[in-house]
Amino acid sequence: MTGRHIAFIGLGSLGSGMALRLLDSGFRVTVYNRTRERALPVAEAGAELADSAAQAAAAAQVLVLSMADEGAVEEILFNRIELRTDVLVVNTSTVSPKYALDASARVEKTGAHWIDACVIGNPSQAREGSMRVLTSGTPEDIEAARPVLTALGSSVVPLGPVGRAPAMKLAFNLLLGAQVASLADAVRYGERAGLDRDLLLAAIGASGFSSKVMSFRAGLMRSGEFQPAAFRTSLMHKDLRLVVEEARDLELTVTETASAYFERAIAAGKGDFDAAVIGEASA
User: Fold this and answer.
1) Cα(185)–Cα(247) distance, rounded to whole angstroms?
2) Nearest to residue 120, comparing CAs of 239, 241, 20, 254?
């Protein structure tokens, strides 16, 4: 598949890194992004720049989507382009399992194919090709996409039928959101008790209670540098809401509470800041 043509739509912080990685791996890549300026650095690196999603997808055998939400996937995939028989849709966008199942069924009706390819990692890892790729779909479609998947990630984890990879990704992001919210609470409590904020964050980040993501966010809270975002607050909130809406019968109280933290940050105009902004220092 290394000689095949890839259309890559959606060039946010992760998408840009992934598109550049595919170029470095020898693929022919055509890119499209709604904000054209975001696509220019990838075009300068060797990608073909399309004027529309339809133009990008017109001749490609593989269509990689890296969109912000289900609405964006829906608009591009079913309103802006015409899917051709045997095109392979590789969706790296985080959507709900329910949406993945519905979208894949509609894609299959056109004669095209769909796999979930949820990525775990940050923009630097996307550029390096060192993310973990969680994938679900038919074994045949996953195998057909394997050269693309292995270019994007250092490990590819097949999880079964369509919908399983989004479920795993959302489970991971549930943990991320809850950890960041808990970290913010711990810092607020410690400061009120008279502890030095910087020393407290440093101690938490280096402790056995921490994790890689908690240590990273503790560092951001210490520096106060929340842009460029490794993971935007608006996306964190979106993912937590997807979990809550799909599992209302489970009463996921911690997830509900964490979601409210990010919702308040968005209301304060900080949706494009890193999720760690919920623990920023008080004015």
Assistant:
1) 25
2) 239
Measured torsion, CA atoms of residues 40, 43, 49, 53, in degrees rounded to the nearest 10: -70
Q: Taking the CA atoms of the chain, what radius of gyration do you get in angstroms?
A: 19
Place of tokens 């808990």: 182
pTM for this prediction: 0.91
| Residues near 135 by beta carbon (within 8 Å), at least 6 away in sequence | 115, 116, 117, 118, 142, 145, 149, 156, 157, 158, 159, 165
Question: Which candidate, 3, 7, 169, 22, places its Cα nearest to that of 88?
Answer: 7
pLDDT tens by residue, 238-279? 999 999 999 989 989 999 999 999 999 999 999 999 999 999
Q: Evaluate if residue 1 carries a pLDDT over 70.
A: no
- Single out the residue of 177, 175, 176, 198 nearest to residue 187, CA to CA: 198
Terminal CA-to-CA distance of the chain, rounded, Å? Answer: 54
Per-residue pLDDT tens digits for 189-228: 999 999 999 999 999 999 998 888 899 999 999 999 999 9
As beta bridge partners, residue 90 has 64, 115
Determine contact, residues 118/94, Cβ cutoff 8 Å.
yes
Per the CB < 8 A criterion, the answer to whether 239 and 166 are in contact is: no
Is 153 exposed, middle or buried, given 0-12, 13-18 or 19+ CB atoms closer than 10 A? buried
Q: pLDDT exceeding 90 applies to what percent of the chain?
A: 89
Beta bridge partners of 32: 9
Closest to 238 (Cα-Cα) out of 160, 176, 149, 161: 176
Q: How far apart are CA 36 and CA 57, in angstroms?
A: 16
Of 88, 70, 72, 89, nearest in space to 80 by CA:
72
pLDDT above 60: residue 283: no
